[in-house]
Amino acid sequence: MKRLGFVMLEVITAIVIVSSLLLMINQAWVFKSSQQQRYDWIVDAEQLRLVATDFWAKNGAPPSTMADLFTEREIEQFRLPWLQQWQFAYNAEWLELSVVAPSSAQAGWLAQQIAGAFSRENEFVMPVWQPHAQSATSEIYLHRVEQTEKPYLNAMATELDMGLFDIINVNNLDMQRLTADNVRTDELEATSLKTTELFVTTLYAHDVITPTTSLQEVTNRLAEYVELWKECQLQGKCS
After folding, report:
1. pLDDT tens, 104-160?
2. What contacts 125, CB < 8 A, 6 or more positions away?
3. pTM (two decimals)
4. CA distance linking residue 25 with residue 21, whole number of Å
5. I need a surface site. Which of 90, 161, 191, 236 has the fewest CB within 10 A?
6. Do 80 and 110 contact (CB within 8 A), yes or no?
7. How many whole angstroms separate alpha carbon 183 and alpha carbon 173?
8. Closest CA to 86 of 100, 103, 74, 102
């Protein structure tokens, strides 16, 4: 009976461990699926705007429904944000493509992912501007999602003025020149650094070169003087 009790305890422990692992795997899969789903929303929204712009340019009038832009099969395969149908509304300035989000926070999140889009309470709005006759099919927006087949959509074509707002969470920053009033960093690697004043707590350097000498040369001279002093002390001439 005692052995049977141990076996039952081992079985229960194994079941708990396996259940925990399955729960962790399921949560990871759900998270990955959610991330992929959101990425698909952004890609399809970008495609919808491009196709709507092209339709407007070719036909001289904006589309009124998705049926004007895609076949029934293409519409079935379209990834709809929050499973909400896209609404088309035209005003004097643009064609307004919108979907209703579960909350204003989620509508705001999607608006931050797509250039030119904005949120209105819990509604996500993506405007499509009337194309100009001379550049009817031009694509005028910088994409937040990489367009591998159209690399020119991944690059800025003008200066960016942040209006004293911050750019945060930058992984790598590659630049030709940096002009700043204040730079704060945990680590700085530079091939060439020019500065008027440098204030440091601890400076680690292979060598420091000045207009008259270098730190390595001063170190060598000091080492020579130390040896000469030792020889002088051995001869009894220095104390």
Report:
1. 999 999 999 888 899 999 999 999 988 864 444 445 566 666 777 777 777 777 777
2. 96, 97, 98, 111, 117, 118, 119
3. 0.48
4. 6
5. 191
6. no
7. 14
8. 100
Q: Edge-to-edge strands of the sheet including 87-90?
A: 87-90, 94-100, 123-129, 118-120
Both tokens of 116, joined, read 């030119």
Separation between Cα atoms, residue 45 and residue 115, nearest integer Å: 11
Rounded to 10 deg, the angle between the 104-113 and 2-59 helix axes is 60
The residue count of the chain comes to 239
Pull the structure tokens for residue 19: 């259940």
Closest CA to 159 of 174, 145, 142: 142
Distance CA 197, CA 202 (A): 15
Say which residues have a Cβ less than 8 Å from residue 235's Cβ, sequence separation at least 6: none
